[in-house]
């Protein structure tokens, strides 16, 4: 069985944080101010530094932020880093320069994120982390809002292993190595694997949450492993990429599961392309992050917990019809 060394990977990734912290030159950025102007009195502008605006998870989270900001009468300044960690540190610096009242941080990289947190701390601006948690550095978060990815992956992998009879060859498609969710989802599946000694992990490859990368990776894995029984995709997009590769190759009877709860994954489960997902709640996370920023701005910091894990829901063909994806991703999906 292939093993992972989480401590080593975190240590290697930490080198990137030092470089990211030293870069503050101007760079291109996506700016999307909300249409809601702040009410009179106080700093009612919240900065959003988001890894990208392509992932459905991040799009839904920002949608939730916009809804909550509109309701509270706050203005948002949203900057997308297009999955460039150095650019994102620059953007945090830009938000600080604009003197926002709080920063909501959906980091591209858990290690480089520490540099952005430290910058905000030094400027006296509270920072709220969503999804990714800085894995190093001395910075302090006002709160961290995320899925309990260890628990979600353990539950999903346990379900998967039961479906394939508790034995057989498994492939794992990982997110960006060193990312919070990648580390936690790998850890969660490892916990499940410990209870299934006859499950053999024959391949592990990072596909960076991306369906196209997963499709290519799965083609190679399928060719090399004719007895493969299942793919665990650490995201829905990667699970769907693997399922499409298998379908194109004429491979039948395999299981494909992911974590996200994308509306497209609900459709894939309904159609039999994939078998299960752990549905997250990014829209609610986005709403909560703005509500917490407002509480902090109004001097109610003590009311904001340091850690806030959101529940996930296991969605399979047995209950997919009973779950509305807009519950998880908001009314625009």
Automatic annotation (TrEMBL):
<comment type="similarity">
    <text>Belongs to the bacterial solute-binding protein 2 family.</text>
</comment>
<feature type="domain" description="Periplasmic binding protein">
    <location>
        <begin position="46"/>
        <end position="300"/>
    </location>
</feature>
<dbReference type="InterPro" id="IPR025997">
    <property type="entry name" value="SBP_2_dom"/>
</dbReference>
<feature type="signal peptide">
    <location>
        <begin position="1"/>
        <end position="25"/>
    </location>
</feature>
<protein>
    <submittedName>
        <fullName>Ribose transport system substrate-binding protein</fullName>
    </submittedName>
</protein>
<keyword id="KW-0732">Signal</keyword>
<dbReference type="InterPro" id="IPR028082">
    <property type="entry name" value="Peripla_BP_I"/>
</dbReference>
<dbReference type="Pfam" id="PF13407">
    <property type="entry name" value="Peripla_BP_4"/>
</dbReference>
């Amino acid at each position: 069985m292939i093993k992972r060394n989480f401590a080593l990977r975190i240590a290697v990734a930490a080198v990137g944080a030092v470089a990211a912290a030293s870069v503050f030159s101007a760079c291109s950025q996506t700016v999307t101010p909300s249409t809601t102007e702040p009410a009179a009195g106080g700093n009612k502008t919240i900065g959003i530094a988001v890894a990208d605006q392509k992932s459905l998870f991040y799009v839904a989270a920002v949608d939730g932020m916009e809804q909550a900001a509109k309701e509270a009468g706050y203005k948002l300044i949203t900057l997308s880093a297009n999955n460039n960690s150095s650019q994102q540190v620059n953007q945090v610096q830009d938000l600080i320069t604009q003197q926002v009242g709080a920063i909501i941080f959906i980091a591209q990289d858990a290690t480089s994120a520490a540099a952005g947190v430290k910058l905000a701390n030094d400027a006296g601006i509270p920072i709220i982390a969503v999804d990714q948690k800085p894995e190093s550095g001395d910075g302090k978060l006002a709160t961290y809002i995320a899925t309990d990815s260890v628990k979600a992956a353990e539950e999903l992998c346990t379900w998967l292993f039961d479906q394939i009879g508790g034995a057989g060859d498994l492939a794992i498609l990982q997110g960006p190595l060193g990312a919070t969710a990648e580390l936690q989802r790998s850890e969660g599946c490892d916990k499940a694997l410990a209870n299934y000694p006859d499950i053999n992990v024959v391949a592990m490859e990072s596909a960076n949450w991306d369906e196209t990368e997963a499709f290519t990776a799965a083609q190679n894995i399928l060719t090399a492993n004719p007895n493969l029984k299942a793919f665990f995709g650490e995201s829905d997009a990667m699970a769907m990429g693997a399922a499409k590769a298998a379908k194109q190759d004429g491979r039948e009877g395999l299981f494909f599961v992911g974590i996200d709860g994308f509306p497209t994954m609900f459709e894939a489960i309904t159609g039999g392309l994939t078998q299960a997902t752990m549905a997250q709640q990014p829209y609610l996370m986005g709403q909560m992050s703005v509500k917490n920023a407002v509480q902090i701005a109004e001097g109610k910091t003590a009311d904001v917990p340091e850690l806030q894990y959101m529940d996930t829901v296991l969605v399979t063909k047995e209950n997919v019809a009973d779950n509305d994806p807009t519950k998880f991703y908001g009314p625009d999906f």
